[in-house]
Specification:
Elements (H helix, E strand, L loop, with lengths): L5 H7 L4 H19 L21 E19 L5 E11 L2 E8 L1 H5 L5 E12 L2 E5 L5 E5 L26
Parallel strand pairs: 3-5
Antiparallel strand pairs: 1-2, 1-4, 2-3, 4-5, 4-6
């Protein structure tokens, strides 16, 4: 005898509990499989600044803050402050402008070393900017030993979006 769905069971007879009891164990097993973690968390792979490209995301970087400049500070009606700072960050391969928002501004002090997790590249007026949104994280860490390569600024490279039409 096969397993019936709930709708088929009700049509055959009014006593649906007999057939439903045969369906429930399968459903419970599927829920247990979904609740168990499938794999342990993997270690982050850290990239270097010179490997960043326009339109990419999911970058993990260890960078030093070269400079930080508050660009916008504005109050909102619900007594929250909106703050945006442009910070020049880099490692031994190059530098890039990082857009820090709200609480991130406090962490981006000059000469501090930070870990940027799940960072993305935003395009602003044709140049690359690094940003961390709500899905990422900015952590202050121990001072790094590398010397920042300041003359290789990726934010000074201007990109142009070209639409290619296929024939």
């Amino acid at each position: 005898m096969g397993i019936y769905t709930v709708a088929q069971t009700r049509r055959r007879n009014n006593r649906s509990t007999h057939h439903l009891s045969r369906i429930i164990p399968e459903t419970v097993n599927r829920k247990k499989e979904m609740a168990e973690p499938k794999s342990p968390m993997r270690k982050p792979v850290f990239t270097k600044v010179d490997s960043l490209r326009p339109g990419t995301s999911g970058h993990n970087l260890i960078v030093k803050v070269v400079s930080s400049k508050l660009v916008l500070q504005k109050g909102r009606p619900d007594d929250r402050q909106v703050r945006i700072a442009e910070c020049l960050v880099g490692d031994e391969t190059g530098t890039i402008l990082f857009t820090a928002r709200n609480n991130q501004v406090d962490q981006m002090k000059a000469d501090s070393t930070v870990i940027l997790r799940n960072a993305k590249i935003d395009m602003f007026k044709g140049s690359m900017r690094l940003a961390v949104d709500k899905w990422g994280r900015v952590e202050v860490t121990d001072p790094a030993t590398f010397i920042v390569k300041e003359y290789n600024n990726l934010s000074l490279v201007e990109y142009e979006l070209v639409n290619v039409m296929e024939e």
